[in-house]
Amino acid sequence: MQQIVRIWTEGRKIRAERSLFFLWQKRQVRKFACAKTTYQQRVVAEATKSLPPPLPFLFSGPPFDESSSPRFSSMAFKIDGRVIAQEIKVSIAEKVLQMSREVGGVPGLAVILMGNERASETYVRNVEVACKEVGINIFLSNLSKSACEQKVLQEVNRFNLDAEVHGVLVQHPLPSHIRAENVLESIHLEKDVDGLHPLNLGRLALGAIKPSFIPCTPRGCLELLFRLGINLEQKHAVVIGCSNIVGLPTALLLQRHNATVTVIHKHTLNAAEITRKADIVVSATGQAHLVRGHWLKRGAIVIDVGICVVKDSASDLGYRLVGDVCFEEAEQVASAITPVPGGVGPMTIAMLLSNTLQSARSAFGSL
């Protein structure tokens, strides 16, 4: 209860910080319409007859008003993923507490980690902290990097059969001797809270059937856009990177919300020229400072998914984290941009918690 009270108090501060963004818009363009925003509305209704209906998200904001865009500012607005993720966790904590009172159980998330890769260990540690904050039980399985594929499949199956576990996450990347597709296929569909099971991705692509879960990082990217009130319809979005984990599902989600999407990969010619035409840029390559300021159209919105470790003698750790986008250059051109760290990363974890809660509600029959 003390944790929930603490999170709720922080949530009040977060709502105050969000209001500063709208006031900042008013100072920039002297045009701001006061309106109540319903943060509890769960479905973004932007479907057209030509495209499948949009998928449910946690937030539906007001349409993006081009005339009140901060694009004419000399510095981009920094999209603080920590602030937005914290507000989402406030809501999840309340629902977990309510679930505990009504059905006597709480969601459970199992995480399988192979080896001691620094970025993966950091992510899993952050997931563990977030689960404890909102009251979700977490079950950790640490395997050696040399563990055979059969051992990984056994661990997945153990959690598949555990009634206290409602979500199974196998942390990527996996060692080269592990066939990732076999591991992902072994996760029960109703526990695929990372949304990467081939059937979930297939449903996302086809559009005819709603996927059980939306992949966490792509969902977090779109959630950031919706929290800013960005209307994706008729926007040109460029996704840099085409991985099955981020690039591909992000492109599919943007398309389902009526954006015109271009995907750039390592074989694309004139990548900078193509990106310069985009209203929205999502980069997920893991290449430090790949996207420079001259790649961007003035006023573009930039979502930086990449996270890279670079040496930094000035840091106590001897290194620092940067993204795909050269932040210092991009913030001079873009209207809004996510920082690294503190942008997409916290949102990925928030979406994982949300998917786990969704799975638990289905298991307990409290849809």
Backbone shape = globular
Instruction: Tell me the strand order in the biggest sheet.
Output: 1-11-8-7-5-6
Uncertain residue ranges:
20-52, 59-72
| Percent range for β-strand residues | 5-15%
Oligomeric nature of the chains:
single chain
> In angstroms, what separates the terminal alpha carbons?
24 Å
How does this model look, in words?
The structure is a single chain. The protein has 367 residues and is an alpha/beta fold. It contains 11 helices and 11 strands. Helix 2 runs parallel beside helix 11 and helix 7 (216-227) packs across helix 11 (344-364). The longest helix has 28 residues, at 2-29. The relative contact order is 0.15.
Topology:
Layout: H1 2-29, E1 77-78, H2 81-103, E2 108-114, H3 118-134, E3 137-143, H4 149-160, E4 167-170, H5 180-186, H6 198-206, H7 216-227, E5 236-240, H8 247-256, E6 260-264, H9 271-275, E7 280-283, E8 301-304, E9 308-311, E10 319-322, H10 327-330, E11 336-337, H11 344-364
Parallel strand pairs: 1-11, 2-3, 2-4, 5-6, 5-7, 7-8, 8-11
Antiparallel strand pairs: 9-10
Helix pairs in contact: 1-2, 2-11, 7-8, 7-11
For this entry, give a set of tags.
three-stranded parallel beta sheet, six-stranded parallel beta sheet, 11 helices, Rossmann fold, 40% helix, alpha/beta, 367 residues, 2 domains
Structure in a nutshell:
By secondary structure, the protein is an alpha/beta fold. The chain contains 11 helices and 11 strands.
